Task: inverse folding
């Protein structure tokens, strides 16, 4: 997701308008018991930066110009230290690997909550959180939340940072969730070893791929790691939670012709083809000359027609009839919309989203409520995936929502 300086300025202003009223507060209730840590996950933690409020002020002046005056003194409260955390996890094939992420720790005397931020789609390793580059979430909003008083964990996922030699697990439920959960385990170990005063509260959030990763993480935590963390709530924006419906939509519907959007659909298909061992030739999925182009350029292929026009008739028929059981099962394995979260969930989506159709959030809201979950959803009229209106409401709403459930 590419954000312009004007957009970031607007988003920062709206986000800060919420922070001034809704900053981190002390825990209002005793934290729930946390079970003994899992076997050691943390490999190493290396300090990659320490920034005073004065230094951060200079950073935000460079990033946002005149809007930085809203930050200086009033919103940048604490010096932060940024660490690159390397930890043990498992890749999607079950092999042991090392992954990484960034951990931001503010210099604060009192007990602090932790926020896990799952990043959206990135195209270059430079933007991975653990690299702390100017295009990373660590450098911008992660540091802002950290200076204000949150411990902030930002997983790179498999395919970036320490694991950059491996293919990224793009839009794969278990790949994203496992890397994110093990980042939290490693962060917990680091905080304990370094006597950081974490009050054990945990909040999780993300938008776009980060939204899907957050929903996947939330589901995995409740189903496979219940009681391990004091998870209080999740706030999630514009994720592709209903993969089965989304896949049929892309296969059958004349949709976007934007090459940047189409490349992400192709990336998802390629990821599932690889992870589930389908290993089909591209000529099975796509007509020529597109099959040859995608075979050579993979997710970087520039396709400027709706993908439903370039899928082969055989593939479309196999998907619609269910006769390609392996592919259909692979897609369904990544559905995360129909389950019952035990803690509150807040969802956001633009109604005019051309990349991730709004039915993903509508279906999740309906299915979760039917199961008795506490779910609220905000739908923004006329908003596409990266429009200011929806992302600003997500950012500002997330801050207020987390404060309301503390």
Result:
């Amino acid at each position: 997701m590419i954000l312009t300086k004007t957009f970031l300025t607007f988003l920062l202003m709206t986000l800060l308008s919420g922070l001034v009223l809704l900053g981190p507060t002390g825990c209002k209730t005793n934290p729930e018991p946390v079970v003994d840590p899992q076997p050691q996950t943390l490999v190493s933690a290396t300090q990659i930066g320490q920034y005073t409020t004065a230094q951060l002020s200079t950073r935000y002046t460079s990033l946002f110009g005149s809007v930085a005056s809203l930050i200086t003194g009033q919103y940048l409260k604490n010096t932060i230290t940024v660490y690159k955390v390397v930890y043990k996890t498992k890749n999607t094939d079950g092999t042991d690997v090392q992954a990484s992420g960034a951990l931001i720790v503010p210099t604060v005397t009192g007990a602090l909550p932790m926020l896990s931020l799952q990043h959206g789609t990135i195209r270059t390793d430079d933007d991975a959180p653990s690299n702390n580059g100017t295009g990373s979430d660590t450098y911008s909003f992660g540091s802002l939340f950290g200076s204000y008083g949150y411990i902030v964990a930002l997983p790179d996922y498999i395919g970036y940072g320490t694991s950059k030699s491996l293919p990224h697990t793009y839009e794969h439920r278990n790949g994203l969730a496992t890397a994110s959960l093990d980042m939290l385990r490693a962060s917990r170990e680091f905080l304990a070893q370094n006597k950081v005063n974490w009050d054990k509260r945990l909040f999780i959030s993300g938008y776009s791929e980060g939204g899907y990763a957050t929903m996947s993480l939330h589901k995995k935590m409740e189903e496979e790691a219940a009681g391990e963390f004091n998870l209080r709530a999740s706030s999630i924006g514009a994720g592709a939670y209903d993969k089965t419906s989304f896949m049929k939509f892309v296969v059958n519907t004349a949709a976007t012709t934007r090459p940047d959007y189409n490349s992400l659909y192709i990336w998802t298909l390629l990821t599932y083809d690889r992870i589930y061992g389908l290993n089909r030739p591209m000529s099975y999925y796509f007509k020529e000359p597109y099959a040859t182009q995608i075979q050579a350029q993979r997710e970087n292929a520039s396709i400027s027609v709706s993908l439903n026009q370039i899928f082969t008739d055989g593939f479309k028929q196999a998907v619609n009839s269910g006769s390609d059981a392996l592919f259909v099962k692979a897609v369904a394995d990544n559905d995360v919309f129909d389950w019952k979260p035990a803690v509150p969930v807040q969802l956001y989506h633009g109604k005019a989203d051309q990349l991730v159709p709004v039915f993903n959030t509508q279906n999740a809201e309906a299915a979760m409520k039917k199961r008795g979950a506490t779910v609220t959803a905000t739908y923004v009229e006329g908003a596409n995936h990266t429009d200011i209106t929806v992302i600003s409401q997500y950012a500002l709403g997330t801050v207020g929502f987390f404060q309301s459930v503390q």
Observations:
- Confidence is low (pLDDT under 50) at residues 1-7, 16-22, 27-36.
- The two ends are 30 Å apart (CA to CA).
- DSSP finds 13 helices and nine strands in the chain.
- The first helix runs from residue 5 to 19.
